[in-house]
Amino acid sequence: MAKTETTLKTAKRSSLSERTKEAISGYIYISPFFVLFAIFGLFPIIFSFYLGFQKWNGLGEMEFVGLQNFKWVLSDEIFWTSLSNTLIMWVLGTIPQLLFGIILAYALNAALIKMKSFFRVAIFMPYVTSTVAVAIVFGIMFNSQDFGLINVILGWFGVDPISWNTSWWGVKIAISTMVFWRWVGYNTIIYLAGLQAIPNELYEAAQIDGATIRQKIQYITIPMLRPIIILTVFTSTIGALQLFTEPLIYIGRSFREEGITVVLYLYREAFTNLSFGPASAAAIILFIIIIILSSINVFVANRIGR
């Protein structure tokens, strides 16, 4: 009897040991991601929060200044201009792309559309295109000269040429159009995947009950797509508030007030003015704004379809 108990205990230990080994090997396999994230993601975030309370030019010793960096940023008119520019571009470029994404996804999911695979690839192509290439092409299209493509088209309708590169609204419209063109296909594919997950039986039952297309969209499509809508609203809001590449290429390193965004503002402070403290303070303020606006958007999107 004692020998049997000893054998069972030994088998249990060996089994536990094998389970532990499997767990360790699993953690080893996934460890590269967490190591790289800790080095290139977590550490810069923590260091940026620390740097927001310091005065540092990137080379000398740091000097603790408390909340002075935040006071300086919040009293800077250019920061508020960059924030207003970012919010305007978010409204002009991000909100329409979500609405058009749902419409395009619904059209691609319809039975009447032929060559669906071709159109899906074509709509998704702008997302995989280089952002720099997109900004250069749109910079040529929105050229302020008379021969600019957009100005030529406007001239057909008797509209005078617009100075897209320098006017207050022209810069914002041009950059917002880039953002819209590049991201509408990405959101369309996400919405399309959500639409294909909706059971056809729901639409068939609604058809039998005499529901119209508007009623199907209102009472079936939108409520079933609510988790996808929340996801796209959340990610699009964060992406819009971090807008950087498009305005940087379009307006250049002049950082003109017509097109400067918050990320461009903190980039200028850090790498042009060598004021890493105010730049980090601006990043922290942007982080708080992103949390607030994302929470509001998720709350509003979560009520859609109820």
Task: Give the helices and strands, then pairings.
Layout (H helix, E strand, L loop, with lengths): L1 H50 L2 E2 L7 E2 L3 H7 L2 H32 L7 H13 L2 H11 L7 H8 L11 H29 L3 H9 L4 H12 L1 H16 L3 H7 L10 H10 L4 H27 L4
Antiparallel strand pairs: 1-2
Helix pairs in contact: 1-13, 2-13, 3-7, 3-10, 3-12, 4-7, 5-7, 5-11, 7-10, 7-11, 10-13, 12-13
Order of secondary-structure elements: HEEHHHHHHHHHHHH
Sequence stretches where pLDDT stays below 50 over 5 or more residues: none
Return Rg in Å.
Answer: 26 Å
CATH homologous superfamily placement of the largest domain: MetI-like
Q: How helix-rich are the residues, as a percent range?
A: over 70%
Distance between the termini: 65 Å
Task: Please give the domain count.
Answer: 2
Number of helices: 13
Shape: globular
The CATH C-level name of the largest domain is: Mainly Alpha
Strand order of the largest sheet: 1-2
- Integer average pLDDT: 83
User: Structural class given helices, strands, pairing?
Assistant: mainly alpha
CATH structural architecture of the largest domain: Orthogonal Bundle
